[in-house]
Amino acid sequence: MSTDLLDKPAGLASPFVRALVRLMRAEDSYGTWEGRTDADLLTDFIVTKEQRREIPIIGDPDPDVLWRLEKFYAAVGIDIERVTGRIASPMMKMSHEGFGRVLLTCGRLVVLTRTLRDVHRFGFETIEKLGEAGDKLVADAAGWIETHPDLADA
Amino acid sequence: MSTDLLDKPAGLASPFVRALVRLMRAEDSYGTWEGRTDADLLTDFIVTKEQRREIPIIGDPDPDVLWRLEKFYAAVGIDIERVTGRIASPMMKMSHEGFGRVLLTCGRLVVLTRTLRDVHRFGFETIEKLGEAGDKLVADAAGWIETHPDLADA
What we know:
Chains A, B: InterPro entries: NifX-assoc_nitrogen_fix. The structure is a homodimer. Chain A is an alpha+beta fold.
């Protein structure tokens, strides 16, 4: 699928980043992204320090950033399967002002819970940092499932 | 607050129904419901067999029925406190077609999870049945908290 075998940015091989890319491509019904490399697709998730400085501190999130936020947590949910054999389902509730909450649940267990703020500034400095952030959430969530498998199955 | 001490419909004294009424009145910022009795407020939750027969099988839920659905599960969440000392927070995700999911969580524990369907037909035959339905959900949820207090506190 991707042709950027040379010059790959660091982090592109992280399992979480692979899951995120698959999820994004799964929604590309019209094939508009077929010509874009994985690294290129992920650039929307990247907000460098300079870019962040230019984003107003207070702002309403646009539909694109909400879509990316949903994909990010959905990717955590499906990547949990790689580690534990179980998928976690996301539930997200956002105010139009960019304040909200996201849950990932697996059976009767809340494997991830986060308050969301400043969602209009959502992004990561590099693809590597995006991967690290996702991998950490997956590992934390998997830890809850491993210690409470009965509830994850309930 | 309520003046309908005589002729009270059955079920009006159920703890869950009391919680639901309090929650509804808490949102009555303009005092438009001050003149309505509790029983009268709850009539919106009542769908008799005859009324149900007249509702199309397929239909989009209107904002009022979505509001009542949210209040119903929020009342379950706060009434759980009466039994366990802990409040459960609701998360609801609905499609515009009336299909969705509701979760109540307490700490790391999912104390209620339900798939929602045919939401445009949401309602109960009598106030008594409304109370019974709520009381049962509260009891089930409380059971999860009582068997997993560590997760409910996590």
